[in-house]
Amino acid sequence: AVALSIAVFIAWDFFFTSRTQPPVPAPKPAAVQTTPDKKAAEPVKPAPAAEVSVPKSNAKEEQVSLSTGVYDIVMSNKGGRIESLKYGSRKVELVDSPTKTGFDFPVAFSEREFLAGNPVQNAVWTMTKKSDKDIVFSISASVSGTPVVIEKEFIFNDKEHYFDLVCRVKNTGRTAFKPENGSLYVSPADGLGPVMADPTLVFNMLSTVYNVDGSFEKGSKGGGMFSDATDTKSHKGKANWYGIISRYFTILMIPQDSDKAAGVIYDSSANTGFRIAGIIPAESIAPNTAFEKKFRVCVAEKEKEVLAAVDPGIVGATDTSKWIEPLRVEA
User: Which of 63, 139, 215, 216 has a CA positioned 20 to 30 A from the CA of residue 263?
Assistant: First the structure.
């Protein structure tokens, strides 16, 4: 009987008394700092790269006008750029930049600067006229602590549908200058005309275009069924030419030396411009030496004979089939 009483007491304590005890709180997990994911539909524009700076200057903006047999051009030493280019006898304005930077042909020192720009692009440059059709813009800057001089030389001719551009980066420092990723990024503009009264019309839809390893390609904007939205996209390989096309016109950069460019990078955000750059290998620039890259820049109507006269390799930029040809523009 005693053993039975003890067994009943132990059972009572196990099933009823233990339930009345407050639960022991579980240890809190350690706090983890997380970064929210970016929304694919809202591409974020990176901050301007901080490594490029320009000395303060009291220089004033100046403009120079010139005419060829094809173009009427207004150039400005602000950014060292083409502010106006009127094409042909009809004087069609082809400078139509979303950021109002014209045909600026910037030299960027990193992928961040390619997209966001740097202080050089809106600074006042020194302008030198070698001749009526040879204009040189230059500016001193500091890039990652190295003093450099950047030059853009525009060489026009009397009757062709192109002009020549020479981009130079001179290392004026005492140590070698090594650009980020061993590359420079040279682009023509972020838009192309003709200027239209209603810019919201899709009639003049723009595209970035390029030829890498002999294949014609068009850049894409935003995401798709099989791809995410990104700020930029790149295509590595031998870039024979690159630029922007509208329905009737092109602006194309054609590297003139045998090594061409090592690929292209372009703005792929859904709601921004059409900036595209050649990736120019530049591993190291020794002190007191200059790196130089030459381009032929074709600004012309998308007419096969016109493009072929500039360079037979760019005819694919007409982006047409045998059934649909662009309207010809009276030059």
Answer: 139
User: How deeply is 82 buried, as exposed, middle or buried, from its count of CB atoms within 10 A (0-12, 13-18, 19+)?
Assistant: buried
pLDDT at 228: 65
If we measure between CA atoms, which residue out of 225, 72, 77, 219 comes closest to residue 156? 72
- Residues 97-152 have pLDDT tens digits of 777 889 999 999 999 899 889 999 999 999 999 999 999 999 999 999 999 999 99
CA gap 156, 75 in Å, rounded: 12
Q: Which two tokens stand for residue 32?
A: 């983890």
Distance between terminal CA atoms of the chain?
120
User: Radius of gyration over alpha carbons of the chain, in Å?
Assistant: 29
Is the per-residue pLDDT at 195 higher than 90? no
Q: If 0-12 CB within 10 Å is exposed, 13-18 middle and 19+ buried, where does residue 173 land?
A: middle
Confidence class for position 227, pLDDT limits 50, 70, 90: low
Q: Quote the tokens at residue 245.
A: 């096309």
For the cut 80, the answer to whether the pLDDT of residue 327 exceeds it is no
**CA atoms within a 13 Å half-sphere pointing along the CA-CB vector of 297:** 28
DSSP 29: P
**In whole angstroms, what is the distance from residue 302 CA to residue 199 CA?**
20
Q: Binning pLDDT at 50, 70 and 90, where does residue 201 land?
A: low
What is residue 177's DSSP assignment? B
Cα(171)–Cα(168) distance, integer angstroms: 10
Report yes or no: 285 and 293 within 8 Å, Cβ to Cβ: no
Task: Look at residue 235 and give its three-state secondary structure.
Answer: strand
Give the per-residue pLDDT at 199: 56
3-state helix, strand, coil in the chain (%, to 5): 15, 40, 45
- Rounded Cα–Cα distance for residues 299 and 256 (Å): 16
Q: What are the distances in angstroms from CA 223 to CA 36, 205, 267?
A: 19, 18, 12
pTM for the model:
0.80
3 state SS of 141: strand
